[in-house]
Design goal:
Layout lengths: L1 E6 L10 E3 L14 E8 L2 E8 L2 H16 L11 H10 L6 H18 L9 H13 L4 H20 L7 H4 L20 H7 L5 H12 L3 H5 L6 E2 L4 E4 L2 E3 L2 E3 L7 E4 L2 H13 L22 H15 L15 H13 L4 H8 L4 H21 L8
Antiparallel strand pairs: 1-2, 1-3, 3-4, 5-6, 6-9, 7-8
Length: 386
């Protein structure tokens, strides 16, 4: 049998901790009202499921739990501290990349600081607000706090599915109280900057790497992981199967394997590079080998020793027209910009870049397509004769 009861604060004027739900508000002075619980009697055992202060939500919870009790499907909520659950959740992630796990651990550390040793089922909106305030006090940007909030929401949802919580406060947090991620425009290279930049890059692995990045739009990690087995110059295609980030080899972002079709000049460029490397017959050899102990190129070397000095010599500012700093990823942004400005369809570009959806592509690069569409529309001016 299931019923509702209300628990009052110690300083409540009612003067007793528990009252029936129906009369709980009569004379109650608790801030925001008493906290409601669904009470389930199982023989001699008494289970209390905390369902919060909202009376409508409490009545919905009673109906749900009551149905479970009637169908003999009710399972009491389990008790576990957030710290223990956070560790369990991260260790149970299937197929997560090392870099993803590292980011998730960062989120859990902030949550542990905010929640302490509290039991998961007793966490609520006030604890969530403390979590957000803690990160703000430590100087984290709204974009970073929004990312941590998404991870915490996923962790909380898993706790519900595991029977450790009844609700997910992240899901019900009002939009006005959510940190808003600042949308940043893509930091690309201008058309007239590209010849100047490549004039300052010597022939060799870095020049070839930069050119392939620019003319394919591939991610840095995808290029660093590339082996000659992945390159088919007869079919003009690169098969993206791996990604090298954070010192670890993994699957591509979004776990999306894809084929990147090459223009004739990229095929010629890679053919010449294969020859310069001594025409390696071992297909497991890296296309862009490094001199580190791992054999891979080091990201910091690419940027600090090669790209940034070349930009400086070419008179190209680190901060571009969009107000964002140019990095290696700017080659990818430049590819997307030029593709859309020259009529490539957004859907096809999204597949080529390996985005999880066209919404991602449109959100980053859609304004380039809209600008080109406007130009095309303007060509219709005065053609109708009436």
């Amino acid at each position: 049998m299931a019923s509702l009861q209300a628990r009052h604060a110690r300083d409540c004027a009612i003067g007793k901790p528990w009252t029936p739900f129906a009369t709980a508000m009569e004379g109650c002075t608790c801030t925001g009202g008493p906290t409601n619980y669904v009470i389930v009697r199982d023989g001699k055992k008494l289970h209390r499921e905390r369902v919060g202060k909202n009376r409508q939500a409490a009545e919905r919870a009673l109906r749900k739990i009551g149905t479970q009790v009637d169908e003999d499907a009710y399972e009491p909520q389990k008790r576990i501290t957030f710290g223990t659950w956070a560790t369990t959740w991260i260790e149970g992630l299937e197929g997560a990349k090392a870099t993803t796990v590292k980011d998730y651990r960062s989120t859990m550390e902030y949550a542990r600081q905010a929640f302490g040793d509290k039991v998961v089922r007793r966490l609520g909106a006030s604890d969530l607000k403390h979590f957000l305030a803690l990160m703000r006090e430590e100087g984290l940007s709204d974009s970073t706090r929004a990312k941590h909030l998404r991870v915490l929401g996923a962790c909380w949802q898993s706790a519900i599915e595991a029977g450790y919580a009844a609700r997910n406060p992240v899901r019900t947090l009002p939009k006005s109280e959510r940190p808003r991620a600042t949308k940043k425009e893509a930091a690309f290279f201008e058309n007239d900057e590209l010849p100047r930049l490549f004039a300052e890059v010597d022939d060799g692995v870095f020049r070839t790497l930069f050119l392939v990045a620019l003319k394919t739009g591939m991610r840095e990690g995808e290029l660093l992981a590339l082996t000659w087995r992945d390159v088919d110059l007869l079919k003009n295609v690169i098969r993206v199967r791996h990604n090298f980030t954070g010192g670890a080899l993994s699957t591509p972002k979004n776990h999306e394997q894809r084929d990147v079709h090459l223009t004739a000049d990229v095929v010629e460029l890679l053919g010449e590079w294969w020859g310069e490397l001594g025409s390696p017959t071992d297909q497991s050899k890296l296309v862009f080998p490094g001199d580190s102990t791992s054999g891979y190129l080091v990201v910091e070397t690419i940027l600090r020793r090669e790209l940034y000095p070349a930009m400086k010599r070419a008179g190209i500012a680190r901060v571009g027209a969009t107000g964002q700093k140019r990095t290696f990823h700017s080659f990818r942004h430049t590819y997307a910009k030029l593709a859309l400005e020259n009529g490539r369809h957004l859907f096809e570009l999204s597949r080529h870049l390996g985005h999880s959806s066209t919404n991602v592509t449109s959100g980053i690069y859609g304004h380039f397509e809209r600008a080109e569409r406007k130009k095309e529309t303007e060509k219709m001016e005065g053609v109708f004769g009436v």
